[in-house]
Write a structure and sequence with these properties.
Helix content: 25-40%
Strand content: 25-35%
Largest sheet: 7 strands, mixed
Order of helices and strands: HHHEHEHEHEHEHHEEH
Number of helices: 10
Structural class: alpha/beta
Shape: globular
Radius of gyration: 17 Å
Number of strands: 7
Distance between the termini: 43 Å
């Protein structure tokens, strides 16, 4: 479905080695996404170009922000949806211990089928992020949390930082306004035990003449999150930090 040669070439341009096997796995993932999307609403993007750039390449921009290759990393993808960026990251980094968290069980059924088809090991968890953040099994258990959700950064931080162990990192995937969002979320980041340690910038190939700027905000967890967080979702939305 996707142009695998283009994907590999894009990887070379960005110092990311994508093997033929990995390209095949990502192509199979794209095919499954489109097939399952006919039965359930997983994504509005189903054309080969859009899936390649807006889903797969976009997910792979997180690779440079992860801990060094070879390290054992427990990663939770919060509000994973159709599996982005978690599944592409697991394809590229087999040593990742991946947890896919989503509030809709039907998406997790799809993700379990994808993992079987691609030969990936991942734990699929059916829960809302604010619920998981208060559960002993998940609170401060992960080296890395990722989120590609379209939500304001103070809310994303409250959903994600409680899941990250001190010394770990929350990688927030944002667009061109990422730096401004980081400034606006400075107070929330501090209250939740985090600190902005850097911003990694990417330029994705243009789709329909429009290039997309991606910023990966690296929010380091420097101290435990206070017990009162995360709050209920309604309160997070109504009274953001």
């Amino acid at each position: 479905m996707i142009d695998r040669d283009r994907l590999v070439a894009w990887g070379e341009e960005n110092n990311l080695e994508i093997t033929g096997r990995q390209a095949d796995q990502l192509d199979r993932y794209a095919q499954l996404l489109v097939e399952w999307n006919e039965k359930m609403n997983l994504t509005a993007i189903t054309d080969p170009e859009g899936v390649l750039v807006k889903h797969l390449m976009d997910s792979l921009t997180v690779l440079r922000s992860l801990p060094a290759a070879g390290e054992k990393v427990r990663l939770i993808d919060v509000g994973t949806g159709a599996g982005f960026p978690g599944i592409p990251l697991a394809v590229m980094r087999e040593e990742l211990e991946l947890t896919l968290l989503d509030s809709l069980n039907k998406r997790l059924v799809f993700l379990e089928a994808v993992c079987r088809a691609l030969g990936l090991e991942a734990r699929c968890v059916h829960a809302r992020a604010e619920e998981a953040g208060r559960q002993k099994a998940h609170r401060e258990k992960y080296n890395v949390a990722t989120a590609r959700a379209v939500a304001a950064l103070p809310a994303l931080c409250e959903y994600c930082l409680p899941l990250v162990v001190p010394g770990g990192v929350f990688l927030a995937m944002k667009g061109p306004d990422g730096e401004r969002e980081a400034q606006e979320a400075a107070s929330a980041i501090k209250v939740l035990g985090g600190k902005l340690s850097g911003i990694d910038e990417w330029q994705l190939p243009p789709v329909e003449g429009e290039a997309a700027e991606r910023k990966i905000l690296r929010i380091q967890k420097i101290s435990p999150t206070p017990d009162r967080f995360p709050r209920q979702a309604a309160k997070i939305a109504k009274q953001p930090l």
